Predict the structure.
Amino acid sequence: MGNRGMEELIPLVNRLQDAFSAIGQTCDLDLPQIAVVGGQSSGKSSVLENFVGRDFLPRGSGIVTRRPLILQLISSTSEHAEFLHCKGKKFTDFNDVRQEIKAETDRVTGTNKGISSIPINLRVYSPNVLNLTLIDLPGITKVPVGDQPPDIEYQIRDMIMQFICRENCLILAVTPANMDLANSDALKLAKDVDPQGHRTIGVITKLDLMDKGTDVRDVLENRLLPLRRGYVGVVNRSQKDIEGKKDISAALAAERRFFKSHPAYRHMADCMGTPYLQRLLNQQLTNHIRDTLPALRSRLQGQLLSLHKEAEEYKCLNPDDPSRKTKALMLIQHFGLDFEKRIEGSGDQVDTVELSGGAKINRIFHERFPFELVKMEFDEKELRREISYAIKNIHGIRTGLFTPDMAFEAIVKKQIVKLKGPCLKCVDMVIQELINTVQQCTNKLESFPKLREETERIVTTHIRELESQAKDQVLLSLEIQLSYINTNHEDFIGFANRVWTILFWKEVIRKGWLTINNISLIKGGAKEYWFMLTAESLSWFKDDEEKEKKYMLPLDNLKVRDIEKGFMSSKHVFAIFNTEQRNVYKDYRHLELACDTQDEVDSWKASLLRAGVYPEKTTVDGEGSAQAESFSMDPQLERQVETIRNLVDSYMSIVYKSIRDLMPKTIMHLVINNVIKKIKPVKLSFFSCKMQRYYIYYPGLPTSSSVFFPIGQVDGEGSAQAESFSMDPQLERQVETIRNLVDSYMSIVYKSIRDLMPKTIMHLVINNVIKKIKPVKLSFFSCKMQRYVLIHIFYLI
């Protein structure tokens, strides 16, 4: 390639960059380019302005460069600038260029220091420049300002990495000389993506601001932190020079004098300074483009061929072709089937890597939600203080002889109201899991982005509508609980089912591997044990064969607390301890139990909750606590508080049980089943009349035996076959098992209905009638009604 061809390489890449920017697409061709990286106030802007010979970049405190600036320098006889977003407009005043950069930045990012990865394309024509293209990136910052998000440092880092991680990108790492090179943000980022230093060019700025007697000669001679492409030192204008409008040509002359006269740098003066850096970058970029051009050409030709093939397919496209509609309907059908399988757990392709959407929802219902209920359980001292106030306020100036029912009802209702938060959170978690499942199912529609987008939109909108209905119903359920306190419930204090209690205490609630952290450390390393949790004890064994029991810990007076994950540890830890300050195991006051994941920790805590081991509660201190303590001075009040405390405990356990049972049913009825019903009509539309005829005329096609039944089979032979089943012993056992399960479950339903019916009628009928009557009673005493009554009384007399 001749000199003329070499000169055309940089403009060629410029045209490619402009083409991608014009169509709003990111450049995935990995074009050869130079990215300028540096910390705030490292001197990046001054280096670029020295190249152009003009002041044209915004200046100020904080982040000034908030969008990537693709700066294309083109050698020309005339001097002007052009923006890609201002086609046909030439800027001859470089102050206007600065204002346009600020305005275009604010248009996309706002005025309060936000950032964006959408680049600004600026082309500068000048006789003072060499053909060169640079990408000026935002300066690395640590502290957010204005309306910047807290993670602004990571956002800027990610944006920089998008450019410099490409193999064809040269990195211009700008570092001020008055900073320790080991702390250079620019060199650190460059080393992350270019550990051998093959693509990095170091620039050391502010050499004139170093302390007397110090220099960076070892760095500039490429001996301290060597880079294959070396370092170049430059001297920028100071802030005083900029404010004093010092001419850039004068600054370049001063830079030249500095290197010529400095004892540490005079021997390398010809390889230092802005003019040399510009020549070096022009040469490096040209050579880099030449080296990468064959691979770039090959990739472009491959993509062009692929696009030609795709274009040929579109030439034959008939929008009215029925096969296109059939394919779209089949895709929607597969989406619906996939969604059902993920939620209902059907299908033969079972995921063995992670939980499906349905399994996660089941976990929310039976582990996360019960745990959320107990997490908000009332504080003991605070509760007793509230009961004491309620009793005193109900008695007023009188001395009460009996424990007032109203105090019990007031406290219970206050506790029921607190259930609103966990219940609504449960709905939120299920809704989010449904939306995640929808997004996972639509991943298979990637080749049809519009179809995918519309499918997601329709189903997600429907889910959001159902979310509102479900939350309304949840709040209604709590209102129903508040409307009538059912103290005749068989589970309220006084009722005891001894058989169930005995079975419960023997039931194994959970088994699994756990590591005992605090004991293992003393013995020289973490060791796993096989744990078994029942309703009365926590035991651990040497292994899962459960032959060698290490210890059995009774659950009396135990509680759970969270332990912060260690910095170096990959395990997630929780602890169990005795509330009466006793040792739980040998000389240990608490046991630290570790799992591999946070999900396992949550699952174990939910299981411990079922066994009656609750999370640790904070105590009330200060004045309120002192008042609570003072109540113990009245023995009669203490007895009344204790009585109501036990009644509240008993009744709230009924409410918790009822809410835990109703929440999954409510969400299943109002949300999940409705979503599945919403998707089914879309699937069924696939079987239009035309498609039904197709299946009828081609009986060889596969059909589901569960859908098509023989029409004539009603009684007779079929009934006789049914009768013969009773002769099968295995079937008999299955029938008996299911019969017992039905009995057990229906007893729960009957109990729930008996409890809910009076509450529902009280809330929806009786309380509403009372509310309706009250205004009528009040209106009776209006002026008009009073006169009417007096007249009638007069005539009666």
In short: The chain has four domains: 32-298, 337-494+660-693, 501-615, 744-797. The mean pLDDT is 75.
